[in-house]
Design a protein that fits this description.
518 residues; alpha/beta; Rossmann fold; N-(1-d-carboxylethyl)-l-norvaline Dehydrogenase, domain 2; Single alpha-helices involved in coiled-coils or other helix-helix interfaces; 7-stranded mixed sheet; 20 helices; 9% strand; binds 6-phosphogluconic acid
C-alpha cells in the first residue's frame, strides 16, 4: 500500500452498528472533533444515535444518520474509514460483503472492533486482501469506556495503523505516565466530556492480524479470573464470617485504596452497596447466583489447553461460571451433601480473628491476581512464539492501565517488570512480584485453610495456590506419572542421570530390564 496521509479531524468516519458500543464510540469521535456517519440495519438505533448527538452537541451535530451503506460510503472521502461495531462472528462477514457490494474499494479501510475470535480475524484479513484493508482493533471498557475513553488493541497492517493512529489516540483512555493512573475525562455524574489533550493514550499497535484480538481475549480471560477471585472473597466474608453486603462493601472500599486498587474492586463495592429498588434489601442478595458468559473466557481456556500453557486460574473462572449456571442441580445436591467439617468448633469467629482473616484475604486476592496475570502473560508469550508475533508486553500492560475492565494500579508493576526485562520468562521471576508473593503468600494459604474448613468453594484462589506451589516445586510427581504411562503404554521416560531427550522403556511385563528408546 502506498504511503497515505494519516486521518485528520477533517475526515468523516463511518461507524456501522449503533448498539451500545458503536453509538458511544461514534459520540466519542464527535467529542474529539471527528465528523461521523452512522448506519445500523435497525433504523431506530440510527435515529436514537442522531437524537442523542443532537441533545449533546446541538441540532447541526457532526453525527449524521444514514439509511443505507451506499449513503454512508458516499459521505466518506477516500481512503474511507469504516468502523464496525457488530456482533462477532457471521455478522462481521456479512457487513464486509455488503460493504463491498455497496462500493467499498481497495484503498478503503474496515476496522472490526468487536470481540472477534482471533483466528477469524486472520482469515478475514487474508480473505479480503486486495478488495479493501481489513484491520481490527479490540476495544475494552464497556459503554462508559467507549464513550469517554476505551483501551484499544489494534492489529493488522502497520501502514493502516499509521493512518488510524491519530483517531485511535484521540478517542482512547489516557493515563498519567508518571503515576500510571487514569486521567479522568468526566466529573462524577457528567454525561458529556471534552476531548483530553494530556496523558498517554491507551492504544498501542499490537502486531499482525489476529494479535490484537488474541490479546483482548486474554484480557477477558484475566477479567473472568479477577471477577471470580473477588466473588470468592465475597463468598467467604458473607458465608463464613456472616458479614452483610454493606459491611463487605466497606472492606472492598478499603482494599481498593491499597495494592488491590482496581476498577473491578471499586464496582464490586458499589454493587454490594446498592439497595434493591423493589424490596429495599441489598440488591446483590436478590440477584440470582447464575453467571452468564459470552465466550471469550472459554476461548482463553481452550487456547491455554491447546498451547499447553498452564492457566488454571483463568480456566477455573470459566468453570465457576458454568457450575453456577447448574442452579437446579445445586439446589438439589445442597440438601444432601455434607460439608465434612474437620477441626471447626462451630463457635463464632472472634473479632480479632475476623480482622486477621480479612487481612489474610486481602493478601490472598493479591496472590490470586498475580497468578491470573502471570498465566495470561505467559499465554500471550507462548501464542506469540507459535504465531511469530513480536509482542511488547510492557505496552500491553501500559494500555490496560486505563479504559479497560481490568484496569488496576497493579498494572504499573507489570509495565516496570517488562520494561526492565522485555523477555521475562514469567511474572513470578520479576523481583517485584517475587517480593509481593513472599510477603502475601501466607495470607493466601491461611484464607484457603479457613475457607476449605468451612466448605466454601474457592476454585480460583485454590488453583492460584496450586499454581504457585507447582512453580515453587523443583520436583513434581510427574516421575510417577511417566512410570505409569510407560507401564501401560510403553510411552517411555527420561532419567535424571541421563542426557535430556534420551528416552527409556522398562519391560514391565517381562524381564523388567530397561532399554534405550530412539
Ligand atoms: C470489556 C469486556 C467486554 C465484555 C465481554 C465479557 O473488556 O469491555 O470484557 O468485552 O464484558 O463481552 O462478557 P461475558 O462476561 O459475558 O463473557
Amino acid at each position: 500500500m502506498p504511503d497515505k496521509a494519516v486521518v485528520t479531524s477533517a475526515q468523516r468516519i463511518g461507524v456501522i452498528g449503533m448498539g451500545v458500543m458503536g453509538k458511544n464510540l461514534a459520540l466519542n469521535m464527535v467529542d474529539n472533533g471527528y465528523p461521523v456517519s452512522v448506519f445500523d440495519l435497525d433504523a431506530q438505533r440510527v435515529a436514537g444515535a442522531v437524537a442523542q448527538a443532537e441533545q449533546e452537541f446541538g441540532c447541526n451535530s457532526a453525527l449524521q444518520g444514514c439509511q443505507s451503506l451506499e449513503q454512508l460510503l458516499s459521505q466518506l472521502t477516500s481512503p474511507r474509514i469504516v468502523i464496525l461495531s457488530v456482533p462477532a462472528g457471521a455478522p462481521v462477514d456479512s457487513v464486509c460483503h455488503a460493504l463491498l457490494k455497496a462500493g467499498l474499494d481497495a484503498e478503503d479501510i474496515v476496522v472490526d472492533t468487536g470481540n472477534s475470535l482471533w483466528t477469524d480475524t486472520i482469515a478475514r484479513e487474508q480473505h479480503f486482501q486486495g478488495k479493501f484493508h481489513f484491520f481490527s482493533s479490540a476495544v475494552s471498557g464497556g459503554e462508559v469506556g467507549a464513550r469517554f475513553g476505551p483501551s484499544l488493541m489494534p492489529s493488522g497492517e502497520m501502514q493502516v495503523w499509521q493512518q488510524l493512529a491519530p483517531l485511535w489516540h484521540a478517542i482512547a483512555a489516557k493515563v498519567d505516565p508518571e503515576t500510571g493512573l487514569p486521567v479522568s475525562r468526566t466529573a462524577a455524574g457528567q454525561t458529556k466530556a471534552p476531548a483530553l489533550q494530556q496523558g498517554e493514550p491507551c492504544a498501542a499497535f499490537i502486531g499482525p492480524a489476529g494479535a490484537g484480538h488474541y490479546v483482548k481475549m486474554v484480557h477477558n480471560g484475566i477479567e473472568y479470573a479477577d471477577m471470580q477471585l473477588i466473588c470468592e472473597a465475597y463468598h467467604l466474608l458473607s458465608s463464613a464470617l456472616g458479614m452483610t453486603a454493606v459491611e463487605i462493601a466497606a472492606v472492598f472500599d478499603s482494599w481498593d485504596k491499597g495494592p488491590l486498587n482496581s476498577y473491578l474492586m471499586a464496582i464490586s463495592a458499589e454493587v454490594l452497596r446498592q439497595q434493591d429498588p423493589v424490596t429495599g434489601a441489598a440488591l446483590v442478595d436478590m440477584i440470582l447466583d447464575k453467571a452468564g458468559q459470552k465466550g471469550t473466557g472459554l476461548w482463553t481456556a481452550v487456547s491455554s489447553l491447546e498451547l499447553g500453557t498452564p492457566a488454571p486460574t483463568l480456566a477455573e473462572a470459566v468453570y465457576a461460571r458454568a457450575l453456577s449456571a447448574r442452579h437446579e442441580l445445586r439446589q438439589r445436591l445442597s440438601q444432601t451433601l455434607p460439608v465434612g467439617r474437620c477441626d471447626i468448633s462451630g463457635a463464632a469467629v472472634s473479632e480479632t480473628d475476623k480482622t486477621a482473616l480479612i487481612s489474610a484475604l486481602e493478601s490472598a486476592l493479591l496472590c490470586g491476581k498475580i497468578a491470573g496475570y502471570a498465566q495470561g502473560f505467559q499465554l500471550m508469550a507462548d501464542n506469540a512464539a507459535t504465531q511469530g508475533w513480536q509482542l511488547n508486553f510492557a505496552d500491553i500492560a501500559r494500555i490496560w492501565r486505563a479504559g479497560c475492565i481490568i484496569r488496576a494500579g497493579f498494572l504499573q508493576h507489570i509495565v516496570a517488570a517488562y520494561e526492565a526485562e522485555p523477555s521475562l520468562a514469567h511474572l513470578f521471576a520479576a523481583p517485584e512480584f517475587n517480593r509481593l508473593l513472599t510477603e502475601h503468600i501466607t495470607g493466601l494459604r491461611q484464607s484457603l485453610v479457613f475457607g476449605i474448613q468451612q466448605g466454601i468453594p474457592m476454585p480460583c484462589l485454590t488453583s492460584a495456590l496450586s499454581y504457585y506451589d507447582s512453580y515453587r516445586s523443583a520436583r513434581l510427581p510427574a516421575n510417577l506419572l511417566q512410570g505409569q504411562r510407560d507401564y501401560f503404554g510403553a510411552h517411555s521416560f527420561e532419567r535424571h542421570d541421563a542426557p535430556a531427550g534420551q528416552h527409556f522403556h522398562l519391560n514391565w511385563s517381562g524381564d523388567r530390564q530397561q532399554h534405550a528408546v530412539n
